[in-house]
Every structure is written in structure tokens, then in C-alpha cells.
């Protein structure tokens, strides 16, 4: 589904509301295995994006994603800022490069299924960039444990409701993982039994976006 300014502004608002609603929960998750500030940091980041929503929403999608990523890097702080920022900025750059190549080759407009495949490929590159930035991978108990399965579901043309459920279950699945990166890794086996806060916030944002697409999809 193409995103216009109204869609992007609405999504920014919904994501901000979702993080605000779960701010204390994210903080409790982080208190168990980290500094306890993930909820507050994410709220600060989403508030910063929300304050710029009018200027961001009128940008072309690639530029808007890059700007959101930059705002998150500057405002979230901690480990999450660079990871979320990298994801959004790489998505924006990837989409910009795709659009430029399409214009140069005078490629016809993609249909909905081709658009999904194209976006999934760009997302795969962005997720790899996040892994490289965090020097982590699948099973390390990070937000990547949500991003990898979500990207795979998107590549398989799964419906938004299925992608949302995948994100929820993936975040829950980090509970029994041993943390191998970040502050939680210092706890060793004591990190087992606690859901990763970064995976949780990533799932919340993914679910919010998916539910919006589901509601806006033509019946």
C-alpha cells in the first residue's frame, strides 16, 4: 500500500501512542536485564519524531525514513538509538536507490505483490546493517530476533495480521534466550527468563504498523 502524507503522519502518531502506552512495561523488562531506561528512551525518541511529524510526513518516503532514523539516533540514546536509526536510515537509502534505478531504467510501476517483494529485499539489507552495527545476529536476544522473522514473513507475502503475530511471538521467544550482546550479556544465564526489551519495543512498533495496514487495506 503506497503511503501518502496522511498515512505517514497517522503512523507516527500511532507508534508514539503505542510506546507511551507500554513505556512502563518496557522499563520493567529492561530493569530485569539492563539499565531500566528503554521505555523512557523509546518514549523520548518517538516524541521527538512526533514533534517533527508535519515536516516529515510531506517528504518522499525514502527521505522521511532517513529523517526519522536520524531523529531517533539523536534522541533515543543508549544502544537502541543507533540500532533503530540504522534500520530506518538504511531503509530510506535503499528505497531511494531503488526509485532512482527504476527512473533511470524507465521501469513500469510495480504491482502490489512486486512492491512487497522489493520492499522485503530492501528491508533485508537494512536488517543486515543493524546486525553489523550491533555486531550481533539471530539468537543473541536483541531486536534482531524480531526483525529477521518479520522480514522473512514479508518476503513470503504474508498478510499484515500474520506479520504482526510473528513479531509478537518472536519477542516472546527471546524470554528463554541467553543474552549474548549488550548489558544483558553480563548476566550470563541469569538473562534467561526475561523478554528482551528491544525485541519487545520492535514487536510493538511492527504490530502497530501492521494493524494500520490491515485496517486501511481495501476490502
Automatic annotation (TrEMBL):
<dbReference type="InterPro" id="IPR036117">
    <property type="entry name" value="DhaL_dom_sf"/>
</dbReference>
<dbReference type="InterPro" id="IPR004007">
    <property type="entry name" value="DhaL_dom"/>
</dbReference>
<dbReference type="Pfam" id="PF02734">
    <property type="entry name" value="Dak2"/>
</dbReference>
<dbReference type="GO" id="GO:0004371">
    <property type="term" value="F:glycerone kinase activity"/>
</dbReference>
<feature type="domain" description="DhaL">
    <location>
        <begin position="6"/>
        <end position="211"/>
    </location>
</feature>
<dbReference type="GO" id="GO:0005829">
    <property type="term" value="C:cytosol"/>
</dbReference>
<protein>
    <submittedName>
        <fullName>Dihydroxyacetone kinase DhaL subunit</fullName>
    </submittedName>
</protein>
<keyword id="KW-0808">Transferase</keyword>
<keyword id="KW-0418">Kinase</keyword>
<dbReference type="GO" id="GO:0019563">
    <property type="term" value="P:glycerol catabolic process"/>
</dbReference>
<dbReference type="InterPro" id="IPR012737">
    <property type="entry name" value="DhaK_L_YcgS"/>
</dbReference>
<dbReference type="InterPro" id="IPR050861">
    <property type="entry name" value="Dihydroxyacetone_Kinase"/>
</dbReference>
Amino acid at each position: 500500500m503506497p503511503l501518502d502524507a496522511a498515512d505517514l503522519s497517522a503512523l507516527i502518531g500511532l507508534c508514539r501512542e503505542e510506546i507511551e502506552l507500554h513505556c512502563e512495561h518496557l522499563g520493567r523488562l529492561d530493569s530485569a536485564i539492563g539499565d531500566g531506561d528503554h521505555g523512557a528512551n523509546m518514549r523520548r525518541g518517538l516524541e521527538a519524531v512526533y514533534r517533527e511529524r508535519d515536516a516529515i510526513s510531506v517528504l518522499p518516503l525514502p527521505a522521511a525514513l532517513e529523517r526519522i532514523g536520524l531523529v531517533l539516533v539523536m534522541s533515543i540514546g543508549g544502544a537502541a538509538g543507533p540500532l533503530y536509526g540504522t534500520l530506518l536510515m538504511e531503509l530510506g537509502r535503499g528505497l531511494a536507490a531503488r526509485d532512482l534505478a527504476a527512473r533511470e531504467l524507465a521501469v513500469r510501476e510495480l504491482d502490489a505483490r512486486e512492491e512487497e517483494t522489493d520492499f522485503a529485499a530492501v528491508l533485508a539489507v537494512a536488517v543486515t546493517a543493524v546486525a553489523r552495527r550491533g555486531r550481533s545476529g539471530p539468537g543473541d536476544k536483541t531486536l534482531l530476533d524480531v526483525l529477521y522473522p518479520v522480514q522473512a514473513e514479508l518476503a513470503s507475502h504474508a498478510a499484515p495480521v500474520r506479520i504482526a503475530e510473528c513479531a509478537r511471538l518472536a519477542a516472546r521467544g527471546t524470554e528463554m534466550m541467553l543474552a549474548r550482546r549488550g548489558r544483558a550479556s553480563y548476566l550470563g544465564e541469569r538473562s534467561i527468563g526475561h523478554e528482551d526489551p528491544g525485541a519487545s519495543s520492535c514487536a510493538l512498533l511492527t504490530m502497530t504498523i501492521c494493524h494500520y495496514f490491515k485496517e486501511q487495506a481495501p476490502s
